[in-house]
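re the bet — no i am not wrong, look at it urself. input seq straight from the record:
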Amino acid sequence: MSARVLVAMSGGVDSSVAAGMLQRMGYAVEGLTFQLDSSCSFKGDPLVDSARVCDHLGIVHHVMDLSAPFREQVQQDFVDNYLQGMTPNPCVVCNRRIKWEYMLRKADELGIEHVATGHYVRVTQTLAGPQLLRGVEARKDQSYALWRITPSALRRTLLPLGTLSKSEVRALALELDLPVAQKGESQDICFVPDGEYREFLREFAPRDTEHISPGEIIGPEGNVVGRHHGLPYYTVGQRRGLHVALGKPVYVVELDVANNQLLLAWEEGLRRPALLARDANWLIDVPAEPLHCLAAIRYHDIGTRALVRPLAAGELRVEFDQPRRAIAPGQSVVFYEGERLLGGAVIQQALREEQKA
C-alpha cells in the first residue's frame, strides 16, 4: 500500500505542483484547503482552484473552515503587535498556529502519516532528527518563515519543491497540465491587499485604532521636528511618508511607545550591534552555551555572523560581528549554520552600542 500524504493546497501553482510531484513519486495524495477570512486576497478562489486541481489529479479534496482561528490567532496578533509598536510577521505565526497545526490535526483524523506543502525549503530526516535547509533558489527560499515549526511536526513533513527553482516548478505545472499552470504569484501577506496594512488596521480593529493618537517626531539631534499620525502607522527603517525635511534623508529608528514619540536617525544611525529576542524555537538541542552562527533579520536576508547568547525562558541576546541596519522589533531573527536552519526567535529590542555589554 502506498504511503499517504495530506497536501496543503492554496489553489496556487506551488502547492498544486507539490501534490502532482508527490503523486508521481508514488504517494497516495489527498488535498486540504483552508477556508480563511474573506479579507484574504488571493489570485482566484483558493477553494475553487484547489478543487479543480484535485479533480484533475484524481485525488480527494478536503476543506477546513479556519476563519475563526485565523482571525483570532493571526490577524488579531498582527493588529496587537502593531498597536504595541512592533512590526509583526504574520506568515511565521500562520505557519505554526494554522497551517501545520490544523494540517496535522486533519491528517491524524484521516489516519495519514505525512503532510506536505509547496514551500521552497528542504527537509532531511536524520537519526538525530529532522533538518530544515534553505531552498536551492535563494530568491524563493522560504525557510525564514518556518523557524517556528517544531521538530515533531517536521518529522512528518514532506517539502518536494525545495530542490527546484520557480522556473522548474512552472515547467512541471505545464507538464502535469494543471488547470492553474498559468496562475500568477500571490502576495506576501494574504489579508493585506497591496501592502496597505494601515487600512487593514482601521478596518479590522476600528475601536482599537480610535485610541491611536498623534505625537511628536524627534529628529536625529534630539529636537522636535514634526508630528506623527500614530505610532502603529510607522515601521523601523521607513523613509517615505514622514513629511519631515532636514536637508538629507532621515529614517524611523525607533517607536517610543511609552512617550508616544517617533524617533528618527540619519542613515548611519540605523545600524545596531545587537538585539534582544524572545520566544525562541530550536530545531537543534537548545544551546546551553553561546552559539556562533549566521543570523538573518528579515526575509531573503542571507544572514551575517553573530554570537547568540541564551538567557532565561527562551530569551536571547544576539551580538553581530558587524552592525545591522533597521532591526525591527516584532520581526524574526533566524539562525543558520550554512544552509541549515537552527532556530529563531522574535526580535524584542535593537540595542545601541552602550547597551551591548
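see?? The two ends are 59 Å apart (CA to CA). told u. also The mean pLDDT is 94. so pay up
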